[in-house]
Automatic annotation (TrEMBL):
PROSITE patterns: PROKAR_LIPOPROTEIN
Domain (SusD-like N-terminal) ranges: 66-240
Protein name as catalogued: RagB/SusD family nutrient uptake outer membrane protein
Record key words, sorted: Cell outer membrane, Membrane, Signal
TM ranges: none
Localisation per UniProt entry: Cell outer membrane
Protein species of origin: Mucilaginibacter straminoryzae
Highest taxon of the lineage: Bacteria
Domain RagB/SusD: 365-451
Coiled coil: none
Amino acid sequence: MKKKFIYIIGMALLSSYSCKKQLLYPDNQTQVSNQGGAPFSTSSRIQAQVYGLYNGLKNGQLFGGRYQIYNDVKAENWINQTTNSVTAYQTWTETVSSTSSEVLNLWSQAYFVINNCNLFIEGMNSTGSAVVGASLAANYISEAKFVRATAYFALLNFYCQPYVVSNGNTPGLPLRLKGNSAYDNYDLAPSTVAQVYAQIISDLDAAEAGLPASYGTDAVSNTTRAHKNTAIAYKVRVYLAMQQYAKVITEASKIVSGTTSFSAPTGVANALQANVANVYKSPYTTTESIFSMPFTTTEAVGSQNALANYFGGLGASEFYLNPNGVIADANWKSTDARRTLITTKSGKSYSLKWPGGSPYLDYANVMRYPEVLLSYAEAIARSTNTVDPKAVALLNAVRQRSDPSTTYTTASFATVSALTDAILQERNIEFLGEGLRWLDLWRLNLPIPAKNSVAAVAPSSSNYIWPMSGNEQQYNKLIGR
């Protein structure tokens, strides 16, 4: 009996040791296992991952709202009224630090998206392509490259000097092109701005080649997923930021045809809507909307990220329109249809582009067709250094859609500068609240105008661009700034 009791105790101890032994070799809790390739084992799982890449991009900290919000409030058209440091107050006052929430969160979300794209591309190359076939694999990989390029450009826009400074030979970003699925050494020196742009263009060129011309009659996919015209339009934006105007013209001409009214000749029939208000109404899938972020009741962006909460006079009403900003332009006529997208409450003006209240399901625009038209016009004017008739016609197309009483002619502009100033102001009016104003100032290395109590910021000032994320500085010893 005594021997039996000792044997039982021994078995219990051995069992206990076996359990304790597992503690010596725990599963890596920071590792994202590919489970033997399971995520790429079926076409439905692969497709779900593609949708997941877009979900990362439409996160509220990125293109679900915050990217557009920071781009607008960093410039001069809005006045803050909540002084909430969590909701872009420091961006508005030009006082962000490396530990400000916007600096940390946009950086983190963009690199999260980039890493997911890297992992997806690697998984498709190793396993997934054989599952879905070469054609669909090329489509999916091209979508991942488009998403990656979009995230990298967003980072350049806030954390780096514009390309015009030293032709991009200034510190850029860590160019991470390999997926991280477990904790690793994250030390990586930043590439130059020019090198990051080169990667973005490479991704967009590959995306154009591999993406479908359209998703058929699926208007939602044609608006919320990348197709050939989406990649081309984004190249127009990127080349404009690089001031490579001949390349802007080359890309824009692929998706802009016509002489007075313009449309895309192939793929999705991108064109201006007859009424600009249609762009901001359900179902949000007009052919003018080249790329948008969708929301549903089960995938809402959250009130502190929603464009309506910042600019629409809804919810917290974080900002109202600066009465001395673009709305004060006397050349923006009261009869212009875009004036109907502005409302006044208690003596303050707000935007009606996102009229829906909580849970804030209005789509967030990332790119619309008039941006391509105005970029094309600007590139023609700057590259030819003339008041070119086609540049004027492209400007007219956007202005007359909302203000048919105004017709520009070549005689309307005494100089090329007068024409380019008119194009920039048209962009300022057309995309109010949609996240292009800081981008336009930045790419041209222009000062940020004063607004209310916030002084103007010169391009040479240390606060012209954001500092690198404090988290990146902590974990990447090679970041350099």
